[in-house]
Amino acid sequence: MPVTVQAVRDSLSRIPGPDGRTPLDRSAALSEIVIQGDKVMFSIAVDPRRAAEFEGLRRAAADAASKVAGVGSVLVSLTAEQAPNASPASAAPAQPHGHSHRQPTQASPDDKKLPGVAHIVAVASGKGGVGKSTTAANFALALKALGLKVGLLDADIYGPSVPRLFNVHGQPEVSEREKLIPMQPFGLKVMSIGFLVDEEAPMVWRGPMVMSAVTQLLRDVEWAPLDVLVVDMPPGTGDAQLTLAQNVPLSGAVIVSTPQDLALIDARRGIAMFQKVQVPILGVVENMSYFVCPNCGSRHDIFAHGGAKAEAERLGVTFLGEVPLTMDIRERSDSGRPIVVSAPESPQTAIYLSIASAVW
């Protein structure tokens, strides 16, 4: 029998909500309940100043939901809504069922650091469809080719691409320290929400659940030791980007754009967002910069050319390089064999290595 939302709600009816009186299933603090196969996910909104006190509530809710017939795994998040006129407060981390609470609601600079991770670099774009995830995957592999210890976090909650880019599937195991163990395709430590949910399942999550999921993928994963953690950001300038900027010390951001004016408008927004939260811009990559016909060898500037370079110069940020639009990159990405590892001597790989060297 499939798991139903009502069955989960019934299991939560015996647990008092954050006010101590209202049953959790009728509490306004309970988010929508998301069910994907045998997986159940929901969040509980609490006062950010008292987040640590509600870990027992989170654990009780996870235990109750796990006892529903047919449930295989439960993910319960504590989310901390920011009060009006208050200073920015980070959401309490999402905790897999059985995990202990570790992270304070408002992290100090030292608490924000990921133990054993020297640098965190965000790969971002102002809009979707510019090849950001493909760029992030090959960029991370290029950093590894330089001899660095590298991880890749797929923070695109609504459209995770990393499982397909690396042809990696299945749920990650849990360590003795009750943290998720990253997958390791091609020697790269990789984590994605796509490993925890079905590939075709829609992620109908509101902002607080997104922020909690991103925080969990940062805090509750065995990343260390790493020289660089590359974060494949979701497109845009919303909750996930702000959560990362406020919760971890980003060493900088790499902005990916195509050359045409429409994409550059959105890239400007991405740059401005990171600058507003005082994250350094490490540079701009012009992706799909040009197309070389595999038959005749002629070059075609399908999306115009040079726009990202001109924009980088105008804004006074580093231009990292041009990545062409090629069938080879596309085919290897679709088959789970990124070009940096499957064609290490190719001219395209040389471009990614150049970008990685410049950023490092």
Task: Please write out the topology.
Elements: H1 5-12, E1 34-36, E2 39-46, H2 55-66, E3 73-80, E4 94-96, H3 109-112, E5 117-124, H4 132-145, E6 150-154, H5 162-166, E7 189-192, H6 207-219, E8 226-232, H7 239-247, E9 252-257, H8 261-276, E10 281-292, E11 299-300, H9 307-315, E12 319-325, H10 327-334, H11 339-342, H12 347-359
Parallel strand pairs: 2-3, 5-8, 5-9, 6-7, 6-8, 9-10, 10-12
Antiparallel strand pairs: 1-2, 3-4, 10-11
3D structure, described in words:
32% of the residues lie in helices and 20% in strands. The chain has 12 helices and 12 strands. It has helices spanning 5-12, 55-66, 109-112, 132-145, 162-166, 207-219, 239-247, 261-276, 307-315, 327-334, 339-342, 347-359; strands at residues 34-36, 39-46, 73-80, 94-96, 117-124, 150-154, 189-192, 226-232, 252-257, 281-292, 299-300, 319-325. The strands form 2 sheets. Strands 5, 6, 7, 8, 9, 10, 11 and 12 form an 8-stranded mixed β-sheet that branches. Helix 6 (207-219) packs parallel to helix 7. The radius of gyration is 21 Å and the shape is elongated.
